[in-house]
């Protein structure tokens, strides 16, 4: 009888423990979700919408935890986290962030820039380059929910080349490119191309400063002011498509380079640190414009240093290290170019 009573008591204690543990787990998830909302300023239109978003968030949280367990064991070379996009499915993320971001990148006419001429084979390139350390790169910006990645990539390259020529680092206006370069094939928040942006700046006689023509993350009327130009452009150069060695040489000898990549995977959506290695990446189906500001190697793994335009809260303070010399992974060298100033 005593044994039966003790057994029943043990079952009650175990059940109570499991209930408390379950409640504690849910409470922890609730607190994490609340903290995440506060961090990114997330609000929802209704209780029902928040409940739906939370379920997506919880599902993504499990995926992130599993991935990071593999990273802890050395199976993955990068870590994931609950980014701004954590309440979105991957399909939603791609629709929101890449709805035409690179316009007709994947079915456009032949590229129209000058050809990048390689230096002699005997040249020895440095093992690592980081133009941030040399003053070529402005702070990380945020395109918000506007498909203007192409404009941020273009201004980043032009900012670097202007600094190289003048010694002055001036933040340039993405909004002017969004508002004013439509006749060159760009479509503002619905996408565009970096080369078309360079062509516009060349013909227009310059690009205004960010201060004089600030970013609004929406399409607007063109209000270019020739009195507040921060940079001019005399043309642009296209680097041989798919040639990572040529891209490395350009980054090492020219400065930050505009590049297009495939950024549509869950792994990119939730990236927070490490060397990004996504074998499933496409080298031709490109959806995002970014800026290559350097390269390096870590423990035998080569990488590119890429500046994104999703604020400093994403990735490594707004940057991502992407695999280098892995057969043009994610199309990093497929459509690389830079402006002439």
UniProtKB/TrEMBL annotation:
Residues 1-23 form the signal peptide. Residues 125-340 form the Peptidase C1A papain C-terminal domain. InterPro entries: Papain-like_cys_pep_sf, Pept_asp_AS, Pept_cys_AS, Pept_his_AS, Peptidase_C1A, Peptidase_C1A_C, Peptidase_C1A_papain-like, Prot_inhib_I29. It holds the Pfam family Inhibitor_I29. Residues 33-93 form the Cathepsin propeptide inhibitor domain. The keyword Disulfide bond applies. Keywords: Disulfide bond, Hydrolase, Protease, Signal, Thiol protease, Zymogen. PROSITE patterns: THIOL_PROTEASE_ASN (PS00640), THIOL_PROTEASE_CYS (PS00139), THIOL_PROTEASE_HIS (PS00639). Belongs to the peptidase C1 family. This is Cathepsin L. The lineage of its organism: Eukaryota, Metazoa, Chordata, Craniata, Vertebrata.
């Amino acid at each position: 009888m005593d044994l039966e009573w003790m057994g029943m008591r043990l079952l009650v204690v175990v059940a109570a423990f499991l209930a408390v543990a379950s409640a504690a787990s849910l409470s922890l998830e609730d607190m994490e979700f609340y903290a995440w909302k506060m961090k990114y300023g997330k609000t929802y239109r209704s209780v029902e919408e928040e409940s739906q978003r939370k379920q997506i968030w919880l599902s993504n949280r499990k995926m992130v935890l599993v991935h990071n367990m593999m990273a802890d064991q050395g199976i993955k070379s990068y870590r994931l986290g609950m980014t701004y996009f954590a309440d979105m499915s991957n399909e939603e993320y791609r629709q929101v962030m890449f709805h035409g971001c690179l316009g007709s990148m994947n079915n456009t006419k032949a590229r129209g820039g000058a050809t990048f001429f390689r230096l002699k084979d005997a040249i020895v390139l440095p093992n690592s380059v980081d133009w941030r350390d040399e003053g070529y790169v402005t702070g990380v910006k945020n395109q918000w929910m506007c498909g203007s990645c192409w404009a941020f990539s273009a201004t980043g390259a032009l900012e670097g080349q202007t600094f190289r020529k003048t010694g002055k680092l001036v933040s340039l206006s993405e909004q002017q490119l969004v508002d004013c370069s439509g006749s060159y094939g760009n479509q503002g928040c619905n996408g565009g191309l970096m080369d078309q942006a360079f062509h516009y700046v060349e013909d227009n006689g310059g690009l205004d400063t960010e201060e004089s023509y600030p970013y609004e993350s929406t399409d607007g009327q063109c209000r270019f002011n020739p009195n507040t130009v921060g940079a001019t452009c005399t043309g642009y150069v296209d680097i041989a498509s798919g040639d990572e060695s040529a891209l490395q040489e350009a980054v090492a000898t020219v400065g930050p380079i505009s590049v297009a990549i495939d950024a549509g995977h869950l792994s990119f959506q939730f990236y927070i640190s490490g060397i990004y290695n996504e074998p499933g990446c496409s080298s031709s189906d490109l959806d995002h414009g970014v800026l290559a500001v350097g390269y390096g190697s870590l423990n035998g793994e080569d990488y590119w240093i890429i500046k994104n335009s999703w604020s400093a809260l994403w990735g490594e303070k707004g940057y991502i290290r992407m695999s280098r010399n892995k057969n043009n992974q994610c199309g990093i060298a497929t459509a690389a170019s830079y402006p002439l100033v």
